[in-house]
């Protein structure tokens, strides 16, 4: 079982085929209960099919979502920046907020620009300014909204050009930025906005959503399969849903083995075996596991990534050893990202992990054993 932080009651693989009753019990025919939207009849990627359309269906980050719900109800939206890692609902929340604030006027009163659009200084000067000047009749407390998605890759010059526009047209137009790194948004824009930070979704939140989607799509799964999805996606709902759909499409049944095959990541049980050998300073056996994984063609970065996740979730090792292991794994991760991803690098890591568990006196230089000149 992949060692995730989450504990699930059942330890034996149980098959939870979604019963047709669950699917039939969907309330409000034609309305998807996970998103609040009308269901399309054609096949869509599940990430889009299950993209929430109203704030109350967005999972996780409760406090922030609650604040957005208050804004949606009362209007007078401030300029906002939502920042956080990928796939956790930033774009979705902004779209939900705009939809709830503007209702039928959404089409006319919202403009969305993302990284795929040209957002150079000319666009800011022309397109955004023109939109800000446009007259749209809205109820009081409602404003036109400019959504700048993936704003962290707008050039600083284009961001500078927004400063005055944001102020001049603030009585009619509000700005909503979504980005991964708020530090890439220039200070003057940050100071004009409320900055909301989203965190990764918890294992529990991911599990609940995955179970709901499985029930809805009638996917057969084992709990270990869902745990594996959570383990590989690391709090990223988009990745979890994509991997679920790929595993279902490729294998039918969603089990841990099938998920790791689809994600092309080494099975944590293998890695666990390797760590357990390291903890006993059994270097030969530990290296053998790494060589096997190497032989299977796994990339060094994936092996090291899984090593980190397994050590982090390891419940049976002393805290000090865990800290030292994570430090060593971190150094090797850095070297791999710099391009040094050889088997020797990996073997060196294993040697250090074993050495950490050995007694320092085993390494003392013994002059008596030294051949004399
Ligand atoms: N909090 C969430 N609740 C429910 N579904 C979610 C959530 N977060 C992400 N998803 C799913 O993942 C998909 C992508 O989410 P979204 O576009 O909001 O990610 P993002 O945070 O904007 O990521 P990026 O930084 O890559 O732009 C959604 O269509 C939805 O299916
Ligand atoms: Mg986004």
From TrEMBL:
It is found in: Nucleus. Residues 7-24 have a biased composition (Polar residues). One of its GO terms (cellular component) is DNA replication factor C complex. InterPro entries: AAA+_ATPase, ATPase_AAA_core, DNA_pol3_clamp-load_cplx_C, DNA_Rep/Repair_Clamp_Loader, P-loop_NTPase, Rep_factorC_C, RFC_lid. Its main location: nucleus. CDD domains: AAA, HLD_clamp_RFC. SMART domains: AAA. Pfam families: AAA, Rep_fac_C. Residues 1-32 are annotated as: Disordered. Residues 76-202 form the AAA+ ATPase domain. Keywords: ATP-binding, DNA replication, Hydrolase, Nucleotide-binding, Nucleus. It comes from the Eukaryota. GO terms for molecular function: ATP binding; ATP hydrolysis activity; DNA binding; DNA clamp loader activity. GO terms for biological process: DNA strand elongation involved in mitotic DNA replication; leading strand elongation; sister chromatid cohesion; UV-damage excision repair. Coiled coil: none annotated. This is Replication factor C subunit 2. The lineage of its organism: Eukaryota, Fungi, Fungi incertae sedis, Chytridiomycota, Chytridiomycota incertae sedis.
């Amino acid at each position: 079982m992949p060692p995730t932080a989450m504990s699930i009651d059942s330890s034996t693989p149980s098959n939870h085929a979604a019963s047709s009753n669950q699917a039939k019990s969907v309330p409000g025919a034609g309305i998807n209960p996970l998103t609040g939207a009308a269901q399309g009849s054609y096949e869509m990627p599940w990430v889009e099919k299950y993209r929430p359309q109203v704030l109350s269906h967005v999972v996780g980050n409760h406090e922030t979502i609650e604040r957005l719900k208050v804004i949606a109800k009362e209007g007078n939206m401030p300029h906002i920046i939502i920042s956080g890692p990928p796939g956790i609902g930033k774009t979705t929340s902004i779209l939900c907020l705009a939809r709830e604030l503007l209702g039928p006027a959404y089409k006319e009163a919202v403009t969305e620009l993302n990284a795929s659009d040209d957002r150079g200084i000319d666009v800011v000067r022309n397109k955004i300014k023109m939109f800000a000047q446009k007259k749209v009749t809205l109820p009081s407390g409602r404003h036109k909204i400019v959504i700048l998605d993936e704003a962290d890759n707008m050039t600083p010059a284009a961001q500078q050009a927004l400063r005055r526009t944001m102020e001049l047209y603030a009585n009619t137009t509000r700005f909503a930025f979504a980005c991964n790194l708020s530090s890439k948004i220039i200070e003057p824009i940050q100071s004009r906005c409320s900055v909301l930070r989203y965190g990764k979704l918890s294992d529990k939140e991911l599990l609940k959503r995955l179970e709901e989607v499985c029930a809805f799509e009638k996917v057969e799964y084992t709990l270990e399969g869902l745990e594996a999805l959570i383990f590989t996606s690391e709090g990223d709902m988009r990745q979890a849903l994509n991997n679920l759909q790929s595993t279902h499409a490729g294998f039918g049944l969603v089990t841990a083995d099938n998920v790791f095959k689809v994600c092309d990541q080494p099975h944590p049980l293998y890695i666990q075996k390797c760590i357990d050998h390291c903890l006993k300073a059994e270097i030969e056996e530990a290296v053998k596991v790494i060589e096997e994984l190497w032989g299977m063609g796994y990339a060094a970065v994936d092996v090291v990534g899984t090593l980190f996740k397994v050590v982090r979730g390891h419940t049976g090792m002393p805290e000090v050893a865990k800290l030292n292991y994570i430090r060593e794994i971190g150094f090797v991760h850095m070297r791999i990202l710099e391009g040094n991803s050889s088997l020797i690098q990996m073997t060196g890591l294993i040697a250090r992990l074993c050495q950490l568990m050995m007694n320092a006196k085993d390494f003392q230089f013994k002059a008596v054993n030294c051949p004399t000149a």
